[in-house]
Amino acid sequence: MNFWDYLGARHEQLLTDAYQHASAVFQCMVVATLIGVLIGVVTYRSDWAGNLATTATSTILTVPSLAMIGLLIPIVGLGVPPTVISLTLYGLLPIVRNAIVGLRGVDPSLVDAARGIGMSRVMRLLRVELPLAWPPILTGIRVSTQMLMGIAAIAAYASGPGLGNEIFRGIASLGSRNALNQVLAGTLGIIVLALLFDAAYVLLGRLTISRGIRA
């Protein structure tokens, strides 16, 4: 069976795996973005706090993904929980780092002007600082998403959802007639999903970043 015949015969399962893969990455990115931006907001005013946040999230990223999932299995079991926890943790570093850089890069004169017209600290953050810091934050989200697309494939080790199951099945059956087709289908599926997500982020940037900031 050639690759195209394999895709035709397995398209329903492949689409299901692709949907589960994309859904897991998307949901973990939402959680990682909320946590990462919050950490950035709390720490960007202090050099030591910002460095601590960046160092902590960098340390998480140095843990091999297979080891991370393996360590989580005895605690939370197999399936979705270790997948969600590990992906969320791995997605933090680019978002935290870019949130801190973006917030520190806001022109102080703009913040002073907002203070001068009576804006509270929360209002300055929500209406001035975060919108101006949004471009680097979005860049961090894009980087995290690309990383998580690949890392999510390892979730199959813990019976997690996604296209990693197709890759692991192919590796486990090396020598069979469809082993290469399975690995290739899972790998190409992840690449396509990564490109689609990145295109969506480009569109989101065009819709949410003003032309003045882009310039």
From TrEMBL:
Keyword Transmembrane: yes
UniProt membrane topology term: Multi-pass membrane protein
Signal peptide interval: none
PROSITE patterns hit by this protein: ABC_TM1 (PS50928)
Entries under InterPro entries matching the protein: ABC_transp_perm/SBD, MetI-like, MetI-like_sf
Record keywords: Membrane, Transmembrane, Transmembrane helix, Transport
Cellular localization per UniProt: Cell membrane; Membrane
Transmembrane intervals: 24-44, 56-80, 183-204
KW ATP-binding (keyword) present: no
Ranges of residues in domain ABC transmembrane type-1: 18-201
Family from the record: Belongs to the binding-protein-dependent transport system permease family.
Protein's UniProt name: ABC transporter permease
Species of the source: Streptomyces hintoniae
Organism lineage: Bacteria, Bacillati, Actinomycetota, Actinomycetes, Kitasatosporales
